[in-house]
Amino acid sequence: MAIKNRKHNYPLYETTHFENFREMTENIAKKYPDRYAFTFKKNPTDKEFSHYTFEESRLFVRDLATAFADRGYENKTVAIIGESSAEWYFSYFALMSIGAVTVPIDKELPARDIASIMNTARCAAAVYSPVIIKKFDELKAGATTAEDWIEISDSPADGSLALSAIRETGKALFEGGNNVYYDYKIDTEKCSSIVFTSGTTGKGKGVMLSLKNICSDMVNGMYNFLITDRTMMVLPPHHTFGSTVNVVGHFAQGCEIYMSSGLRYLMKELTEFQPTHLILVPLFVETFYKRIMATAEKTGKLKSLRRAIKVSNALRKVGIDLRSVLFKSVTENFGGKVEMIICGGAALNQEIIDFFENIGIVILNGYGITECAPLISCNRNEYRRTGSVGMPIIGGKIKIQDPDENGEGEISYKGDNVMLGYFENEQATKDAFDDEGYFKTGDYGKVEEIDGDQWIYITGRLKNLIIFSNGKNVYPEEIETDIQGVYGVGEVVVYAGESKSDPSKEVIVAEIYPDEEALKLHNIENAQEYFEAAIKEINKKNVSYKAVGKVKLRDTEFPKNTSKKITRFAIDKSID
Q1: DSSP state of 256
Q2: pTM for the complete prediction?
C-alpha cells in the first residue's frame, strides 16, 4: 500500500540556520544545553550509556579548536581516521572552525593507502582512533608530511599526543584569555574538507567541500524532514551521508545521536537504545527485511504476517491504523520505537519500502552524491512517490542532459551544496560541469513534473551502462532490481560478460550470491536450475535486448567498500 502522492505543498518543517560549525555548536547549546547530543558505550559490553550534552559538546569543541589553533593548524590539512565517535566529530567541528582543512579517511584502508592519501593532501597532522593501532607504525612511517599524531585516547601510542591532553591544553589557554576560537573569522567559501571517494570503480578523487557546501546542504535539506528525537549513527564517518546527514544535520536540530559500537552489536544496541528513526544505506534495510521474513518463515508465522498486512491495509483505507499493535512483535527487533528510516546511497527495492510502511515504519528514499555534500533530493514524511528518490532540496536545481525520447539522460544538479572541485585535478573538475554550471552526477534518469514539483527517478550509473554493438543500451540496475525480488537471492550484480575465447560474444550475465539459508528453508537443492528458471520468467517480461543470457553463482559475498556498495571493478566478468 505505497503512498504515491499525498499532501502536495504541505508546509516545510522548522530548521536551524547556521553558516559554520561554530555557530551551529553555540546555538544548539544555548537552545538545549542539558539535552544529550551524543550517547555511546565506552565499551560495547557496558550496561550503562555514556553521554555528552550539547553544552559539554560546545565546550569540548571550543577547547580543541583553541589548542589546534595554538598548534598552527590554520590553513593546514589534518587527517581524521577512525570509527564514529563523539571525539571524532568534536575534532571535525573544531578543525573546520579555525580554518584547517579536514581529510576524513576510511579506517579500513591498508596503511599504505591511508599514507598515500595523507601525502597527496599534504596532511600536517592526524587525529586517529586506537582502532588502527595495528597498522599505526607502518602508517606513521609512510605518511611523511605529518608532524603531529593525535590519538583519541588518554594513553596514546609512543610518540603520539593524547586528544584528552590537547583538550586540556586548549581549555587552559581559553581560561587564560586566548580567544582565538571566537575571534577567528571563518571563511565559509574556502575549501574546508577534502573527501577522497573510494567509489565502486576503483578510482577515487579528492572532493573539495566548503563549510557553505555542507551547512547549506543541511539547512536546506532539513526543511523536508520531520526528524524524531533519537537516532543512531551506524555509517562510517568518512562517508558524507554519515558525517553530513546523520551527524551535522541531526546535531544542528538537537537530535540525540547514539554512536553504534559496530555492526556486530547493532541489533542488541537497537533494542537497548530504542531509536525513533534511523539513517541507513539500502544494504542494512535489505538485511533487516530478509531477517524478518526468514524468522517469520522459520516460526511458521509468514502466512499470518501477510494476512495481518492485508487486514491492516484495509483498515487504514477507512482511517483505522492498528499497525503499532498488529506488528509489535516485528518492530521490537528494532527497539520497538522506530517510526522512520531515511535511506540513500543506492537503489532500494520498492517492495521493501512498501513492506516497512505496511508494518508502520516509513522509509524516505533519497538521493545524494559526495560532490553535493551529499544530499540532492528526498521524499518527505507525508509526500512521497513510488519509485522516486524525491524532490530536490530547497534551492537545488535539476536538469537532464541530452534527454532521449523517454526523457531520460544524465542527471545534473546546481546548488550551494555543490563541491568546489576535485583536489589538484583541474581537468576532472572541468569535465564534471556543463556550460551552465550544472554538476554532471554520472547518474542516468528522468524528472517528472507534477503540480509544479520535480520528482527524480534514477535508472542507473552511466559508468555501469552496458552498450552493445547493435547500439542498444542496458542499465544493469534495472535488471538487478527485478532479480533482487527473487526468493533466495542474497546479492546480485548484472554486467556484460567477457568471453576470452570469442571477444565478439555479447551476453548479459547475472551473477548471484545465494542466500543458502533461505534456499534450505524451501528445500531448493539445485540453486543453478532454480535461479535460471526464475530469471527466464523475468526475461519474458523485459524487452529482448535486456534478457539475461547467463546465470553465474558465487560462493562468497561480492567485494564492497566501507559504504557497503559493491565494488563492481573487482568482479571477474569472464564467462569462460
Answers
A1: E
A2: 0.85
